């Protein structure tokens, strides 16, 4: 209290001298370790009106906060540093060193705003950075600013502008021989290409980025590139290669202590297990990813994790939880301006509505997703939504539209090489053809999807294709052929749950019909299992109207209930 009293008795000049003395002594005392007390030194030199030193330590404090994932704290320090510098509109005679320092602080703050999802502040920061780049006319600065512009454009779905900015980054980086920025930009182009669904071209850029990063000893760029390569191979259905790249990225992320990279690697590992039907393993990866992203304050990463967990909840029949996850995800991405991710959330909201039999709402959500994907020219997303719209049209009895959407989706997907998605589209197309009694065409489409799914090792999805083929065989009067197909399904489901397919209970219903047509006594047991599973799923739906919709509006569910009642 006495010290506080004495301090208050000092005038402004005396206080400034006191803080200068304290700052100078602490700086000398800590020597090479002065960075450890950057916050304290910044405060003392700010109070001493020694702006140059205060700005240096505030910038350092901001960088240290970023390294600890304390982004809000970093924003405060960086903003304080900028407020102590002359206004950006000061005369052009402002020293170049001062402008360069301002530029570095703005670059750091732009990255903070990007991570926090503060799009308006992020955009304003980029405007200032462009002004500084023009005034400085420095190749290195131009490269750094162009890279941030590309990140903003990619996040908001403006892929042509993002690629243009990345190409500008490469030109500027090469002019100053900065391999790090060149590698980051090449990787960025590969990243955007895989988001658009151009996996083959993406691979070319990513291989180049991996080579550049390894030759130059850039572990962070290397890890990001490994993650992108993992995603490409996952999308192409090359799961072993995808796992290898993802594990390398995870190991490198841990090694260099980059938690954001760890989160990305956990996400793609979860996605791979999800595609292979290992849903419990996928859920564990997604939960680890969510915990990691929350700890480091990565809002976009948190939204991605929530979306992944929503998908698993939907597969497990917890539709209320799934919808809550997806609505939260959509709101986050809408706020931060990530249109591609917002579209994906709308589509998943549609799927959750459809699996509960709420087809009208599902169709509205699907079209919102499709509109966004088409606006941002994301063909991969467009093909995916067309595929799930085709499936919905089959359920609603509009087979012409189902076939039309399927054929359009096939053109997009075959061009991109996304094999897993292609298999799903063949299956949906086959269903539409079968409903139009074009049985030979339907069987051919089912077989094409089946061959891809066997090749990719998607065991659960193989059962869906076999079920479709069995239905067609029944329609063609080939009951024994249908039974052979069903036997493979029965052997699988004896020890494995069928999850992840468009309508898992329809597979049980098909097995029942085939066994009954062949006068197999096990038919009633399969029907009883389907009935039990149906009501187990229905019991997880807390909303009574939604539960009734699930039981009554979905044709296979109605039929299971009806057939079971007849068998009693």
Written overview of the protein:
With 568 residues, the chain is mostly helical. Among the domains are: 2-98; 378-454, Tetratricopeptide repeat domain (Serine Threonine Protein Phosphatase 5, Tetratricopeptide repeat, Alpha Horseshoe); 458-568, Serine Threonine Protein Phosphatase 5, Tetratricopeptide repeat (Alpha Horseshoe), CATH 1.25.40. The chain has helices at residues 2-9, 12-30, 38-47, 51-67, 71-83, 96-116, 119-136, 139-155, 159-175, 179-196, 199-216, 219-235, 239-256, 259-275, 279-296, 299-315, 319-336, 339-355, 359-375, 379-396, 399-416, 419-435, 439-456, 459-475, 479-493, 504-517, 523-539, 544-552, 555-567. Helix 10 (179-196) packs antiparallel against helix 11 (199-216) and helix 26 (504-517) runs antiparallel to helix 27 (523-539).
Which strand-content bin applies to the residues? under 5%
The major sheet is characterized as: none
For the residues shown, what is the average pLDDT? 89
Percentage of residues in helical conformation: over 70%
Low-pLDDT segments, ≥5 res: none
Amino-to-carboxy terminus distance: 87 Å
H/E element order:
HHHHHHHHHHHHHHHHHHHHHHHHHHHHH
What spatial form do the alpha-carbon principal axes imply? elongated
CATH third-level topology of one domain: Serine Threonine Protein Phosphatase 5, Tetratricopeptide repeat
Using the CA coordinates, give the radius of gyration.
29 Å
- Number of DSSP-assigned strands: 0
CATH class of one domain: Mainly Alpha
Number of helices: 29
The structure class reads mainly alpha
CATH architecture of one domain: Alpha Horseshoe
């Amino acid at each position: 209290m006495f010290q506080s009293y004495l301090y208050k008795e000092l005038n402004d000049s005396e206080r400034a001298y006191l803080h200068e003395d304290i700052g100078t002594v602490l700086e000398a005392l800590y020597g090479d370790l002065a960075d450890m007390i950057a916050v304290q030194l910044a405060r003392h030199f700010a109070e001493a009106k020694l702006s140059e030193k205060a700005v240096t330590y505030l910038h350092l404090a901001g960088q240290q906060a970023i390294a600890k994932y304390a982004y809000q704290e970093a924003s405060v320090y960086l903003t304080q540093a900028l407020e102590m510098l002359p206004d950006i509109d000061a005369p052009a005679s402002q020293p170049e060193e001062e402008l360069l320092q301002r530029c570095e602080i703005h670059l750091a703050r732009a990255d903070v705003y990007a991570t926090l999802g503060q799009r308006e502040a992020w955009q304003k920061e980029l405007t200032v950075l462009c002004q500084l780049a023009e005034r400085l006319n420095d190749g290195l600065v131009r490269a750094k600013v162009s890279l941030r512009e590309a990140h903003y454009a990619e996040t908001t779905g403006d892929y042509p502008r993002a690629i243009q900015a990345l190409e500008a980054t490469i030109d500027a980086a090469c002019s100053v021989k900065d391999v790090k920025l060149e590698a980051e930009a090449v990787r960025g182009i590969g990243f955007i290409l895989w988001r658009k669904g151009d996996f083959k071209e993406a691979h070319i850029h990513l291989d180049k980025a991996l080579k550049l990063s390894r030759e130059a000893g850039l572990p962070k760029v290397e890890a990001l590139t490994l993650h992108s390569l993992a995603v490409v191979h996952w999308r192409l259905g090359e799961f072993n290669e995808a796992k290898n790249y993802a594990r390398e990225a995870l190991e490198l992320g841990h090694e260099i202590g980059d938690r954001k990279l760890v989160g990305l690697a956990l996400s793609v590992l979860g996605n791979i297990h999800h595609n292979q039907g290992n849903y419990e393993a996928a859920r564990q990866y997604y939960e680890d990813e969510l915990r990691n992203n929350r700890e480091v304050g990565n809002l976009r990463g948190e939204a991605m994790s929530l979306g992944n967990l929503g998908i698993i909840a939907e597969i497990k029949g917890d539709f209320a939880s799934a919808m809550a996850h997806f609505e939260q995800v959509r709101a986050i991405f809408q706020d931060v301006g990530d249109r591609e991710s917002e579209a994906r959330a709308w589509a998943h909201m549609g799927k959750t509505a459809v699996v509960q039999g709420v087809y009208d709402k599902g169709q509205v959500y699907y079209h919102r997703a499709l509109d966004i994907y088409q606006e941002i020219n994301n063909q991969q997303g467009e093909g995916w939504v067309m595929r799930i719209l085709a499936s919905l049209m089959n359920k609603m009895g509009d087979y012409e539209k189902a076939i039309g959407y399927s054929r359009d989706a096939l053109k997009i997907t075959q061009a991109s090489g996304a094999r897993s998605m292609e298999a799903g589209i063949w299956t949906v197309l086959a269903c539409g053809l079968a409903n139009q009694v074009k049985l030979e065409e339907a069987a051919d489409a089912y077989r094409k999807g089946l061959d891809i799914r066997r090749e990719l090792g998607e065991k659960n999805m193989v059962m869906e294709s076999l079920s479709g083929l069995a239905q067609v065989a029944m329609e063609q009067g080939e009951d024994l052929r249908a039974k052979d197909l069903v036997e493979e399904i029965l052997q699988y489901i004896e020890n494995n749950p069928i999850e992840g397919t468009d309508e898992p209970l329809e597979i049980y219903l098909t097995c029942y019909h085939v066994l009954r047509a062949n006068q197999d006594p096990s038919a009633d047991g399969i029907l009883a299992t389907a009935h039990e599973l149906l009501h187990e799923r229905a019991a997880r739906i807390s909303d009574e109207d939604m539960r009734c919709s699930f039981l009554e509006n979905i044709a296979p569910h109605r039929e299971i209930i009806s057939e079971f009642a007849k068998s009693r």
